TrEMBL record:
Keywords: Acyltransferase, Transferase. It comes from the Bacteria. The keyword Transferase applies. Transmembrane segments: none annotated. PROSITE patterns: GNAT (PS51186). SUPFAM superfamilies: Acyl-CoA N-acyltransferases (Nat) (SSF55729). InterPro entries: Acyl_CoA_acyltransferase, GNAT_dom. The keyword Transferase applies. GO terms for molecular function: acyltransferase activity, transferring groups other than amino-acyl groups. This is N-acetyltransferase. It comes from Zobellella taiwanensis.
Amino acid sequence: MIRQARPEDTDAILDVWLLASLQAHDFVPAAYWWRQQEQMRARYLPSAEVWVCEREGEIQGFIALVGDYLAALFVRPDCQQNGIGKALMTTAKRLRRRLSLRVFSENDVAVHFYRQHGFAVTDESVDPCTGQPELCMGYQGH
């Protein structure tokens, strides 16, 4: 079930974010992700519209939207390949006519996923926090 996040979901959302970030971004030192947890809790999540995928009472993935910006789409590593990302993306597209996002260029799985869902590269840049190259991608609904 996909539903809007509640305050009591925060710890579970952070767990999903950290586990998925460590797995998907092995080209960024793990310490970076551990250090970002408090920023996620205190600043990023409260400023976003967050939706979660809950199955059997457990949060398995989430999206975070800030306006038309898809700030996050993460699925717990042991729950991937079960349609959760697709369901979350469908929710994001239902909520917004257009979407933009940034994704690390080296995150091939995510880049492929976004392309499959109609996103196209609009620009390239370097993430100022990690120094990693990233793609800016956009989606325009019908």
